[in-house]
Specification:
The chain starts with a strand and ends with a helix. The chain has helices at residues 105-115, 157-170; strands at 2-3, 10-13, 17-18, 21-22, 33-38, 46-53, 56-64, 66-68, 71-78, 83-87, 90-94, 99-102, 118-122, 126-130, 143-147, 151-155. It is globular and about 65 Å long. Strands 1-2-10-6-7 form a 5-stranded antiparallel β-sheet, with no helix packed on it. With 171 residues, it is mainly beta.
Length: 171
């Protein structure tokens, strides 16, 4: 298990070899191996584990940070070894297969716009609240939203008043 992250996002490259040949690297494997790694996250916090494969970023597991013998750890099971991304409920993969996990949809959207597009993967249901008209979400690139979760956008305050005014104007 090797942390191959180059930023504050955690990515592991899981591998095993016998006589120099890789083993347990076929996604069609039927056996499971439990992976446990240390973490600096808060005990009880939920982390999302994404498999980084040929088809893009896929949610693989949801793990809770536990304290074992005084150490904070997360554990999950895999059926093959490859790269895994650990982080928040929203992941982003750019068009060059570089991936990162984020705590909010807005952070992932900013990364997607900055990278020139890609795929945002929702590992859980995500709600974005817009409090004012100037906070509308900007989508400036070709961005695909995928995953297990749903995206809900709620309007409050000035944004809600503007929506109500628009509805009255259409009556």
């Amino acid at each position: 298990i090797k942390n191959v992250s180059e930023s504050d996002k955690v990515m592991y490259d899981l591998s095993a070899t016998v006589n120099g040949e890789p083993v347990f690297n076929d996604k069609t494997g039927t056996a499971e191996i439990k992976v446990t790694v240390p973490t600096e996250e808060t005990a009880g916090e939920t982390l999302y584990i994404y498999y980084l494969g040929e088809e893009g970023t896929e949610l693989e597991a949801v793990a809770t940070v536990e304290i074992n013998d005084g150490n904070k750890e997360i554990s999950w099971s895999v059926t093959h070894f490859s790269k895994r991304l650990v982080g928040g409920p929203v992941a982003f993969t750019d068009n060059n297969s570089q991936a990162a996990a984020y705590d909010t949809f807005e952070e992932a959207l900013d990364a997607a716009n900055a990278a020139g597009g890609g795929t945002i993967t929702l590992g859980d249901d995500v709600t974005v609240t817009i409090d004012a008209l100037d906070e509308l979400l900007a989508v400036n690139e070709d961005i695909r939203i995928d995953g297990e979760g749903s995206l809900t956008i709620e309007a409050e305050g000035d944004a809600l008043k503007a929506e109500e005014a628009k509805e009255k104007a259409l009556l």
